[in-house]
Amino acid sequence: KLSRSPRRITNLQILQSVVKWQHLEYTATSLWDTLATIFNHQALILAVNSSFVDPLLQFETQLSIIESSFKVVFAMPTLKEVRDIGNNESEELDLEELYQTILNIFEDTLLILVSKDLYKLQILKEMAVWMNEDNSYLQHRVLVIICRVLNFASRKAKGYGSVDAPCLGDLAAELSLLCSHTDGSITEQASFGIYHLLCIANCENVNIAEGKLTKCDKTGSYNWLPSLLDTEYLPDILRGDKTKIAQSIGHTLEPSLLTDFVWNLFMRLNSPNPVMVKEAANMLKLTLEFHANKVTMVSKIVNTIYEQLSGNSTHIMKQTMLKVITLLTRTSPKKVIFQLMDYPVPADNTLILMWHAAGNESSVAPYVLKTILLILKGKPGEIQDSFLERRRSSLDATNMMPVAASQALCTLLPVSSYKKAVAQFFPQLLMALMFQLCYSSNTQMGSEDNLIYARDALRVLLNCSGLQQVDLSLKRKNFWKQASQVLFHLHGTYLVAKTLAEHNFPQFPETLHYLYKLSVEGPRRTEEGVITVIFLTEVSFIDCEQPSSYFLFLPKRTQHADLLSPSLNIYFTQGLRK
């Protein structure tokens, strides 16, 4: 049996009181009917709870009955209105006692269910949803009961090694939105609710990997580590402070529960209630600001953002969703980038907006460019990289991710926050785009000028790297107009390398070193080998004082000269003569 405080009444007292309240049957008919309904519902719920039925069926049946009870109980008038029905002080006290008994029976039913299975805390989450759907319900009373049940559950959970309560993330989202309510009493109860919820979550040992456990001592009191908050962790600290609420929830909930929390807030951005949207947006951004690294459904969130932004979205929704992209990119750049590649090319305005949002996070610019370079290793129409095969096993021969990556570079490279990263990866980007330009010119899409994004990205790369004169020189040589032509490709490769050498480009040392690395490791495709040797024969002699250090690999390359095209042999021979 459940432990009870002195103020609670026993079942025997309830039966005695029923007789006592008979005279109210006609004075307060609605309350009398509500009491009868609650008694019947409780009997049904407990009967199902003690029967040997499928757990899922049991829960669904009990939830349905609880919902019916909820709508009856919390549709009652306020206590003041009930007391006004009485004709004298004695009737007023009887009415108040009847009113409180109805609430206690409903609460006791929840306590009995939770005492046997903490999984049924899910019912509290549903109650919060029902409450928000209809403002006519007694919201304060609902939250009082939710807090009491959570308090009971937190004390019960202290002896458990683990707690099966998958609803904690969703319930935390519901309560966090109420912590900014205009009614102070509701804010207070919501804060206490989050406090008890976090106590339950801490009993699950959710932060073992981080070594930041919150431990329960033998008396059941909680020892909150200083790393959780800068000050003593109490519900009144949480009240109205969105930042500390977000920090506390993000710190305490394990990744799966925090993902549920984030997803719940994310879906609230579609709410027709502008106040709800604003609160959800603020809480969502604050949570991801501190704990985006714990979110696991990154690809799903990014895809949903794309779908939402492609439709009719409000200004606040649009700004929030783009901010979410930025924050997720900060901690999961690879997941975000790969998902942003998973859309048709050319990219539409929505996708370009998302690229800009991803580019706002300068701290991960190197990781973003590394991911794009990994994708650029692929060839449109085929996937040979084992990592890409694992990531994109469902793709057929129409894979266009490398094309999408080239277009993405057109957006990301000019971003000021990427300037340092672009300089760092200049040689890799240069050669990757030259390879992609070759692939583009040898496929059908080469005939469509608007799909030669490798050419556009190459031009952007030169201008972002201080090589505007190289760009202008290539324009005078009519390179940009002919770049997509198949027969022009080898000569075009020679023109790029030759023009870079003529302008003595400052990135020469690292570029030559990277070309040497490519030649030693060996290209994966014949086209790449051709392009690499052409570049080597043109740029390796810019620094005439130190050519010998790079001649070591030349004999190795000449062993395969017979496998190269006649044009390449000409360029290679010219390079040796120099």
Instruction: Indicate the percent of residues in helices.
Output: 55-70%
Query: What is the CA-atom radius of gyration, in angstroms?
Result: 34 Å
**SS strand fraction:** under 5%
What does the main sheet amount to? 2 strands, antiparallel
**pLDDT averaged residue by residue:** 79
The end-to-end span amounts to: 95 Å
The spatial strand order of the largest sheet comes to 1-2
Structural class: mainly alpha
Question: Would you write up a description of this structure?
Answer:
By secondary structure, the chain is an all-alpha fold. It has a domain at 376-381 and 415-578. The chain is built from 30 helices and two strands. It has helices at 11-20, 29-49, 55-73, 79-83, 89-116, 122-133, 139-157, 168-178, 184-202, 235-238, 242-252, 255-267, 274-291, 298-310, 315-331, 333-340, 349-358, 365-376, 386-391, 401-412, 419-424, 426-441, 453-464, 468-476, 479-482, 489-502, 508-521, 526-539, 554-558, 566-577, and strands spanning 215-216, 222-223. It has a two-stranded antiparallel sheet. A hairpin with a 5-residue loop joins strand 1 and strand 2. Helix 8 packs antiparallel against helix 9 (184-202), helix 18 packs antiparallel against helix 20 and helix 22 packs across helix 28 (526-539). It is elongated. The model is unreliable at 1-8, 205-233, 384-390, 392-398 and 544-578 (pLDDT under 50). InterPro entries: ARM-type_fold (IPR016024), Maestro-like_HEAT (IPR048465), Maestro_heat-like_prot (IPR045206). Residues 139-369 form the Maestro-like HEAT-repeats domain. It holds the Pfam family HEAT_Maestro. This is Maestro heat like repeat family member 9. It comes from Myotis lucifugus (Little brown bat).
